[in-house]
Amino acid sequence: MTATIYYDSDANLELLKDKTIAILGYGSQGHAQAQNLRDSGCNVIIGQRPGSANYDLAVEHGFEPMSLADATSQGDLVNVLLPDEVQGDIYSNQIRDNLSPGNIIMCSHGFNVHFGQVEAPEGVDTLLVAPKGPGHLVR
């Protein structure tokens, strides 16, 4: 199978112009994807647990992190970049009830969607974007 490689000229960022992208988790993938999207002109907000090193890193990078629930409720596209082992619980308790019809929930790994830990409510689409490398290489 031949890989399809997409370049800047293949992307229509106008589709994201009036959207808010919530990045949940500012770890390996979160920090890279958030900064790349912001550098591309997208409106990015961060959901990250206060008091953590990643919260401080998000602030250092010029973001104003908020709770996962608040970021979810403010986001049009919600990118869940939390560790697989906590996603199901956090999704049930902080994310699901803050999604609205028309939102998109995105994961970078299909484990929790496949095993039913993350199930989008009616009217919410689900996307999978799986980077082929650790965050520092994605950045």
CATH topology: Rossmann fold
Low-confidence stretches: none
Q: Classify the beta-strand content into a percent band.
A: 15-25%
What gross morphology would you assign?
globular
Rg (CA only): 14 Å
Which bin fits the share of residues in helices? Answer: 25-40%
Number of domains: 1
CATH arch. level architecture: 3-Layer(aba) Sandwich
Biggest beta sheet attributes: 5 strands, parallel
Mean pLDDT: 91
CATH class: Alpha Beta
Q: How many separate helices?
A: 6
Structural category is alpha/beta
What order do the strands of the largest sheet run in, or round the barrel if closed? Answer: 2-1-3-4-5
Q: Return the string of H and E elements.
A: EHEHHEHEHEH
Q: What can you tell me about this protein's structure?
A:
The mean pLDDT is 91. The protein has a single domain (17-138), classed as NAD(P)-binding Rossmann-like Domain (Rossmann fold, 3-Layer(aba) Sandwich). The protein has a 5-stranded parallel sheet, sandwiched between helices. With 139 residues, the protein is α/β, with parallel strands linked by helices. The two termini are 26 Å apart. The protein is 34% helix and 16% strand.
Question: Can you give keywords for this protein?
Answer:
five-stranded parallel sheet, alpha/beta, globular, 139 residues, Rossmann fold
Brief summary of the model shown:
By secondary structure, the protein is of the alpha/beta class. The chain has helices at 28-39, 53-60, 68-74, 84-95, 111-114, 135-138; strands at 20-24, 43-47, 77-80, 104-107, 125-128. The longest helix is centred in the first third of the chain and has 12 residues, at 28-39.
